[in-house]
Design brief:
This protein has two domains: about 160 residues, ATP-grasp fold, B domain (D-amino Acid Aminotransferase, Chain A, domain 1); about 100 residues, no CATH class. It has a six-stranded antiparallel sheet with strand order 1-6-2-3-4-5, sandwiched between helices. Strands 7, 8, 9, 10, 11 and 12 form a six-stranded antiparallel sheet that branches. It contains seven helices and twelve strands. It has about 290 residues and is α+β, with helices and mostly antiparallel strands. The two termini are about 20 Å apart. InterPro entries: YheC/D. This is Endospore coat-associated protein yheC. Pfam families: ATPgrasp_YheCD (PF14398).
Amino acid sequence: MRIQRVSSKWAKTEVILQNRSLAPYIPDTRKYDYSVLNEMLVLYETVYIKPDRGTYGCGVMRAERRNLILTPSGAENPEAHEEENAEPSIMYILRYGTKALAFQSMEELHQAISGRIKKRPYLIQQGINLLRYKNLSFDLRVLVQKNPEGRWETTGLLGRVAAPQKIVTNYHNGGSLLPVEELLAEHMITADRSSMIHRLKHLGVRIGRQLVKAFPDMKEIGLDVAMDDHHDLWILEVNTMPSLVAFKLFDDKSIYRKISRYAASYGRAGFGSSSLSSRSKTHTRGR
């Protein structure tokens, strides 16, 4: 049984944007070029630059536009707007991995980004101010699968907490995996947490139904969802070969058993009947 994979982030984004009720969940996302970088930094001050095709958060950069006020001595002084001789200045910051580079002009910033991009297609996306857990940013992974009856069903939720000084939350970049309930407990009461989890599950199903209109052989997706300070949800991207083994880490083993059963029903490699009877030998590769 064929499982359709779509590596282009832009192709998936375009399909979701065709649905008016789902489009508001997508941050402003465009193809990268100098003029777009300039415009979006003015609009949002922070943007993410990511490869159109890529996994594990590799190649992701963050660019920031900072308005500084310089005193006559040249020192930065956030309170200097009240001083007659203070002069406004703009600085640009580029972050990737644990590095941070500063530039005096947009042209210098663009040159640095272009040097890392080379000729590969990249996207630029509005930066979302993520909720934090113990002062570290986190986002959410929503796993959605076709069940044996052929209907989309959200089968797993987990939280991904960024490693210190990292701009991405991916486990392969040092991030930590935690239950969604634990992450949300710092930000909302029990009833609101339950409502939010229901909303996340429903959103996952809606995205699956939308994508399958363009990609009819798609069987599974992993939504990377950000939650901002207002508890609004933002879909950062959709993976069509999501990691399943991460769900083995949680105490409730019934979740992974269900995920495995669904994966076997639509023929994902490594989840056939023989592998399900001998789980210790099961090995999957995900994104």
